[in-house]
Amino acid sequence: MDDIYYEKTLNRIIQGRLRIKLGDLVLFIYEPNKDLLEESYEIYDQAKNKAYFSGSFIKEEVLELLLKNDMWSPFDDQQADAMDKKIEELKLHALKVFFKKKELAGVKRNLRNIELQQAKLRQRKVQLDHLTCDGAAKFAQQCWLIQRTTYDRYNNLFDFDGYSISYIMERYQSQTIVPATFRKIARSQQWRSMWNSSKQRGDVFGRCSVDLDQNKLALISYSLMYDNVYENPESPKEEIIADDDCLDGWFIKQRRKMEKDKKQSEIDNMLTNSKIANSQEVYLVAQDHEEAKEIYGLNNDHVRNIIRNRQDQIQNADKDINFKDLNFLWP
After folding, report:
1. How many other CB atoms are found less than 10 A from the CB of residue 255?
2. What does DSSP say about strands 150-152 and 25-30: parallel, antiparallel, or unpaired?
3. Distance between first and last Cα of the chain
4. Distant-in-sequence, close-in-space partners of 190: CB < 8 Å, separation ≥ 6
5. Of the candidates 256, 178, 182, which has an alpha carbon nearest to the alpha carbon of residue 226?
6. Nearest residue to 51 (alpha-carbon basis) of 132, 123, 106
7. Which of 141, 146, 148, 210 has the lowest CB atom count within 10 Å?
């Protein structure tokens, strides 16, 4: 997408409305204020009750239907969750090979492919949600909001003559601002100039945060995120900041470092115990596989070599081996 698209989207966020052109007709769909949102939940509750007493499915019934017809299974959710770890590792690898453009392109292709597979798996569980009481209620709520936020160029509420509410709603939803667009705008020079000057005055959009719509709040959230990146003593290069995958990799790396430091601090506190303070080796019992990996990760390279040597010694032993017979390679 070119810069004009992002400039147009920034203007949309500032204006708090989406401009739609249908031939000679121009419509503006405004983001709902808190009063409309409050009232819309009454519409939601009414529609949900009506759907329930009309015999619409509840979520549990739809899940049973999906399972019975082999359209979804809990294994799909497990696979999708497992992909989160793969995505993290790929983003870490993207950060590592950022300056190897050919390798980076391959990592990104793999990453997009896994994200697509994950989205398809998660979509299986919600593919019939529109048939549920909640789905009917959500649709009624959205239709009601569209009716009360769509205006013509003369600032009159649109009467939907010639166009259905569902059609206008589809047009609106098809132009939902995605995270990548928010991030691009949040680090753009045009917005950063507005953002930095407004922070000094304390009036980013001239309104209290509780009166801001979701698009404005999202842009503020991403802007604060980039502030934290720029202000970090270990801030990455500008080229990495501009690459969402690589910056995510940097976030993951920083998070894991913090988690490791926290775990190390907890262990250091344990080692103040006089009974073990001068011990060469301290064994910690892990509660699960993940915790075992965390504890293992706290060992330095020398200790990891000792662990590997002992594992080899145990595996290659012709008989049971006593602990005192293991190799001790401490300096």
Report:
1. 11
2. antiparallel
3. 59
4. 7, 10
5. 182
6. 132
7. 210
By percentage, how much of the chain surpasses pLDDT 70? Answer: 84
Cα 323 → chain centroid: 46
Q: To which residue do tokens 């009360």 refer?
A: 148
pLDDT tens readout for residues 11-25: 999 999 999 999 999
CB atoms within 10 A of CB 290: 9
Specify the higher pLDDT residue, 54 or 268: 54
Q: Between 315 and 270, whose confidence is greater? A: 315
Mean pLDDT of the chain: 89
pTM of the model as a whole? 0.83
Q: How far apart are CA 328 and CA 307, in angstroms?
A: 10
For residues 247 and 236, the answer to whether their CB atoms sit within 8 Å is yes
Tell me the C-alpha distance between 46 and 119, whole Å: 31
Q: What is the rounded CA–CA span in Å between residue 211 and residue 42?
A: 20
SS3 for the chain, per residue? Answer: CCHHHHHHHHHHHHHCEEEEEECCEEEEEECCCHHHHHHHHHHHHHHHHHHHHCCCECHHHHHHHHHHCCCCCHHHHHHHHHHHHHHHHHHHHHHHCCCCHHHHHHHHHHHHHHHHHHHHHHHHHHCCHHHEHHHHHHHHHHHHHHHHHEEECCCCECCCCCCCHHHHHHHHHCCCCCHHHHHHHHCCHHHHHHHHHHHHHCCCCCCCHHHCCHHHHHHHHHHHHHHHHHHCCCCCCHHHHCCHHHHHHHHHHHHHHHHHHHHHHHHHHHCCCCCCCCCCCCCCCCCCHHHHHHHHHCCCHHHHHHHHHHHHHHHHCCCCCCHHHCCCCCC
Give the least confident one: 7-21, 34-48, 259-273, 317-331: 317-331
Residue with token string 């959230």: 221
